[in-house]
Design goal:
36% helix; alpha/beta; single chain
Length: 242
């Protein structure tokens, strides 16, 4: 298997993802938030490519999660924050479906929407992701699709990508890493020696300034969940494809 890593959504064109196995990742914070939504009973998240689409009549009764540059959008019920959702769990649990727009994560998910199978990945479900990918290891290519930060590389997503590769290689005899996959692996190995490395990340520090330290701490916890939502077109579904 060849393992590609896309450091941000515009790194590859949409056609590159078509018919491939993909893991889409936005550690701070979209994929982390999505996992918590499903843990609270949401069974479908509709991804928006434009925040104004939240005004559509058919979305009136859906839970709305939205942010731009870390701050909640007016048309939405919640910021892209797992901790805020948990604090108002009863409101979340009244819904079965949600719509979502974020600065980075929804863009990455929609860019890879033509994948053969597209898993939602985060530290919170990393072992589940590894288990799923290993079932697909006969596939020739895997893309780790990182959301990045406003069109640039993000350290936290890169560390996750490296962690994923590090664990996958323990179970693979034949593999090939793209250059950015190799870079991700080396950065993760540095992180293993010094986990304070994450504190130098730009996105980490911006979220701290905005008061979302609890979201960061939650996002970095491993294996809170044993399920793996999948992305199909513009929707995320609770069914893991099995």
């Amino acid at each position: 298997m060849k393992i590609h890593t896309s450091p941000f959504p515009d790194y590859y064109n949409k056609e590159f993802f078509k018919d491939k196995t993909v893991v889409t990742v936005d550690i701070f914070r979209a994929t982390t938030t999505i996992l918590h939504l499903f843990s609270m009973g949401i069974n479908q998240v509709i991804l928006l490519d434009n925040e104004k689409k939240a005004e559509k009549v058919e979305y009136n009764n859906l839970l709305k999660i939205g942010e731009r540059f870390g701050e909640k959008l007016k048309l939405f019920d919640f910021n892209n924050s797992a901790t805020l959702l948990l604090k108002d769990r009863k409101k979340v649990e009244k819904h079965e479906k949600a719509v979502m727009f974020t600065t980075n994560g929804t863009k990455a998910a929609l860019k890879s929407s033509e994948a053969k199978i597209n898993f939602v990945g985060a530290f919170n479900n990393i072992s589940s992701i590894i288990e799923k990918i290993l079932k697909y290891k006969k596939e020739t290519e895997l893309i780790i699709n990182l959301a990045g930060d406003k069109g640039e590389i993000s350290l936290e997503d890169t560390i996750f990508g490296g962690n994923l590769i590090y664990e996958l290689l323990k179970n693979m005899v034949e593999f090939e890493l793209s250059d950015y996959s190799l870079i991700s692996l080396k950065i993760y190995e540095s992180y293993l020696k010094n986990n304070k490395l994450i504190k130098s990340a730009r996105h980490y520090n911006r979220l701290i300034e905005l008061g979302f330290k609890d979201d960061i701490e939650l996002a970095l916890k491993k294996d809170l969940f044993g399920f793996t939502p999948i992305i199909k077109k513009n929707k995320i579904l609770s069914d893991d494809g099995e």
